[in-house]
TrEMBL record:
PANTHER family on file: PROTEIN TRANSPORT PROTEIN HOFB HOMOLOG, TYPE II SECRETION SYSTEM PROTEIN GSPE-RELATED
Source organism of this protein record: Natranaerobius trueperi
SUPFAM superfamilies: EspE N-terminal domain-like, P-loop containing nucleoside triphosphate hydrolases
Protein name: Type II secretion system protein GspE
Family: Belongs to the GSP E family.
Any one GO CC term of the record: plasma membrane
Positions of the Bacterial type II secretion system protein E domain: 378-392
A molecular function (GO) term: ATP binding
Family matches, as Gene3D superfamilies: 3.30.450.90, P-loop containing nucleotide triphosphate hydrolases, Type II secretion system, protein E, N-terminal domain
UniProt lineage: Bacteria, Bacillati, Bacillota, Clostridia, Natranaerobiales
Keyword Nucleotide-binding: yes
Amino acid sequence: MFRQKKKQLGELLVDTNTITNHQLNKIVEHQHETGKTFRKSIVDLNIISEDELIQVLKSHMGIKYISLQNYYLKKEIVNQIPSYLMKHYQVLPINISGNKLTLAMSDPLNVVAIDNIQMATGLEIEPVIATTKEIEQEITRFFGITEYLEETINQIDSSYDKSKNENSIENIGEDSPVVQVVNSLINQAIKREASDIHIDSTKTSMNVRFRIDGILHDITSPPKHVQDLLISRIKIMGGMDVTKKRTPQDGRCSFNLEGIESDLRISTLPTIFGEKIVIRVLIKNRKYINLDELGFRVQDLDKYIKLLKSSAGMILVTGPTGCGKTTTLYSSLNRINSLEKNIITIEDPVEYQLSRINQVQINEQIELTFTNGLRTILRQDPDIIMIGEIRDIETAQIAIRSAITGHLVLSTLHTDSAINTLTRLIDMGIPSFLIKAFAGGIVSQRLVRIICSTCQEKYTPSKQELEIYKKYSKVQTDVTFYKGRGCKNCENTGYKDRTAVYELLILDNIIIDMLIRGCTKELTDYARTQGFIPLLENAMDKVAKGETTIEEVNRIIF
């Protein structure tokens, strides 16, 4: 049957005068010598191009050609066929409809492949043509890390003697399987621009997930027996104690991938099934986002830059964890950074290194706290101070006093809106006379995913989505709604990258007085007269512009 399949394709090429009988014999001889497929042998011998071969199959056999660049492999579909069959026959399942499996094939006349896959899946096979190169690329992309990890993990001794001193793992070489597995996970996280690596311990296995654009994605599930080795290796990288499993630990290390320097922040947490690890991936010397790329409206950007150019005052960026506050602060500092200014930051941790800026890392073990660090910074003749986060009343008081005594202070606070930020400071115990002296502005923000430009398409929102949109949007007519269909470019999510939605509140005496008196409703109405746009309205404006979806806004804000 193997020989018969070759004759079928070969005879078709001869019958269509695409190749001669002499060339057919050369192709068959080449494949016998090399063990390569008939189609690869044609390309190797340069008898005809792959495009010419595809054209013959389309024209004379009526077989549809597809480009795999337009498809994203879905795990549940790909898993219908064992990976070894895909590699052996150069095939790729791309869709299931009812009892029919659409199969991309480099050789759609390979009846042996079709029969075997039909037997393996129990589905009717509809063959389509795809290039060998695209099929190989997709197989590698989909199975690359999974198969590599599985093969490497299988080399790790499942009978690892836990009674041995676990510190002995420090002596293992860089070519050992456990080191290769950990390095491979970090490599993939960096390549896929993940912000965090999550390693969870379950009752029967481990789960590895990457956070990409704010969403966790399943990557692989290493077997339970390698749990202690993998976790111990990561702990050693982070300078932690491998023998302490019931106590949370924090560590850090540097990692280099093809010249890309990364800083890894490692956190361990004891759970009932073992330790959970989260690794924050911070790329050093990353190109910073310019302020005008953050998502500000033009009129608000002008107001914000005016605040940054002030010689004194305070700018607070607020929102939940992971909403881009640090990015906004770093972009702000880059905008005003110059040789004429002494800029000092105090952070926990220092996430990115900034040129010509003095950055201080919190270290509570030597009593270098935000409060103590701020007091010292004020003796360093600063023009601009950036405080990573205001966590307590003492830090807040020093920050505000610094702002009203001739310094520009930038910091972050965990509040849900710009208007509630000063209320939060009052609740923390900041005296009203300090609040009244507060000058500057407050940015409250969230991050929403951007619709993938590759697979963006129009759609009709649901009744519930339209109700949400109409309630919070000022743009009510001539709106075209978009969503992402899902493709390879966006890993089938429909979204690619993120942008900020925000509200900017410029403080004046009237606003501060209303806040102190608790006149929140009147404050919002007055702020609107001064150009204030609430966060939800700003978010719906991005929906109207086709940048994001109602569903995404609903997920992030409500």
